[in-house]
């Protein structure tokens, strides 16, 4: 075993958010292999009383029920599960949905990169095998493609895809350093996690998996959240650029961004003013004025493309978990009072 986690076998925990998945959750638990030490079923104020249902019908000794008195969304449920797992000494925490869409037999593939020390966080990607993605509904396929592009821009993880995939695993040290009280608690959770991980400079790796759809119904309607997510992506993008290129460090890319924006905005505004003036006066715009507008735009675009090239190459590549101090109490202290188990 790699020393990135410990010299002993790693303790693996599984977190299962539970909300209206009663017909499937026992089957999910039954498929979780012996490599897992702890299973946390988070009853997110489920109207089906899934926590009681699992407690009364599951004989697996690894299962522990975490209950919310107020619905917190998938993000809140996962954060509560993370806090419990960290407090009980887990080294790696896997999040699996309770609707049966995620095959628990793939769990070792998600855990291995973290245990071997070359990733801090792993997530599923249903787009690796092109022969299988035809199982995905067309609207969901288009929506995921659009969200993936926005996620690459806002999070800085240019090499990942399928951002709404909820099959994930994380090093407990990295999880303990996430700002639990600031992470989005609803459907933007998976994407916001990636943004927060980038602020830690955590290494994220995609894990190939098949798209599986049965009789379960997803609560996420991509067509409804695409525009809502766009605003949140823009906000995270602005924060990421400020954190990484102005607050944490200043590089040549910072200069390219500032100069590029100044030149591009000047050129566009200067050209627009003279174009409007020329239309109003019905006189042709002098060639010198056109060049004075076009040149800053072109040079500005070159600088901005240089910044983009740097940002794409600046994807975190060195796992950070091994360098982080481990403080299990930190995660629990960040949870809101109503999130407690």
Please give the largest β-sheet.
7 strands, mixed
Distance between the termini: 33 Å
CATH architecture of the largest domain: Alpha-Beta Complex
Q: Which strands sit side by side, in order, in the main sheet?
A: 3-2-1-4-6-5-7
| Secondary-structure-derived class | alpha/beta
Q: Percent of residues in beta strands? A: 5-15%
Write the element-wise H/E pattern from the N-terminal end onward. EHEHEHEHEHEHHEHHHH
- What is the level 1 CATH name of the largest domain? Alpha Beta
CATH superfamily of the largest domain: Spore Coat Polysaccharide Biosynthesis Protein SpsA, Chain A
Number of H/I helices: 11
What is the typical, i.e. mean, pLDDT? 87
Q: Give the tally of β-strands.
A: 7
Q: How would you sum up the global shape?
A: elongated
Q: How much helicity do the residues have?
A: 40-55%
By CATH, the topology of the largest domain is Spore Coat Polysaccharide Biosynthesis Protein SpsA, Chain A
Spans of 5+ residues with little confidence (pLDDT < 50)? 337-341
Backbone CA Rg: 24 Å
Number of domains: 2
Structure commentary:
By secondary structure, the chain is α/β, with parallel strands linked by helices. The protein has 2 domains: about 10-235 and about 315-340, Spore Coat Polysaccharide Biosynthesis Protein SpsA, Chain A (Alpha-Beta Complex), CATH 3.90.550; about 245-315. The protein contains 11 helices and 7 strands. The chain has a 7-stranded mixed β-sheet, sandwiched between helices. Strand 1 (about 10-20), helix 1 and strand 2 form a beta-alpha-beta unit. Helix 5 (about 140-155) packs parallel to helix 8 and helix 9 (about 250-280) packs antiparallel against helix 10 (about 285-315). It is elongated, with a radius of gyration of 24 Å.
């Amino acid at each position: 075993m790699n020393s990135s986690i410990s010299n002993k076998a790693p303790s693996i925990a599984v977190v299962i958010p539970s909300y209206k998945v009663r017909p499937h959750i026992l089957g999910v638990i039954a498929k979780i292999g012996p490599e897992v030490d702890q299973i946390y079923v988070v009853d997110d104020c489920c109207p089906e009383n899934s926590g009681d249902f699992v407690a009364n019908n599951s004989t697996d000794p690894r299962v522990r029920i975490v209950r919310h008195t107020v619905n917190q969304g998938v993000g809140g449920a996962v954060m509560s599960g993370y806090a419990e797992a960290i407090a009980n000494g887990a080294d790696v925490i896997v999040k699996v949905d309770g609707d049966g869409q995620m095959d628990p037999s793939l769990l070792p593939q998600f855990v291995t990169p973290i245990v071997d020390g070359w990733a801090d966080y792993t997530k599923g990607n249903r787009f690796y095998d092109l022969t299988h993605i035809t199982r995905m509904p067309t609207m969901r396929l288009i929506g995921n493609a659009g969200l993936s592009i926005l996620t690459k821009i806002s999070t800085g993880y240019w090499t990942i895809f399928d951002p709404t995939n909820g099959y994930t695993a994380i090093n407990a040290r990295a999880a303990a350093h996430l700002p639990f009280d600031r992470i989005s608690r609803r459907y933007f959770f998976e994407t916001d996690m990636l943004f927060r991980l980038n602020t830690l400079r955590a290494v994220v790796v995609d894990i190939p998996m098949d798209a599986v759809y049965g009789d379960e119904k997803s609560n996420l309607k991509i067509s409804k959240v695409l525009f809502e997510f766009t605003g949140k992506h823009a906000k995270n993008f602005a924060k990421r650029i400020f954190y990484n290129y102005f607050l944490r460090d200043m590089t040549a890319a910072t200069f390219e961004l500032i100069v590029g924006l100044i030149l591009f905005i000047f050129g566009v505004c200067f050209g627009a003013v003279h174009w409007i003036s020329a239309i109003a006066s019905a006189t042709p715009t002098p060639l010198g004025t056109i060049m004075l507008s076009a040149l800053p735009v072109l040079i500005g675009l070159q600088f901005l493309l240089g910044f983009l090239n740097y940002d794409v190459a600046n994807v975190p590549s060195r796992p950070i978990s091994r360098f982080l101090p481990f403080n299990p109490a930190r995660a629990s202290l960040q949870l809101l009072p109503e999130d407690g188990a």
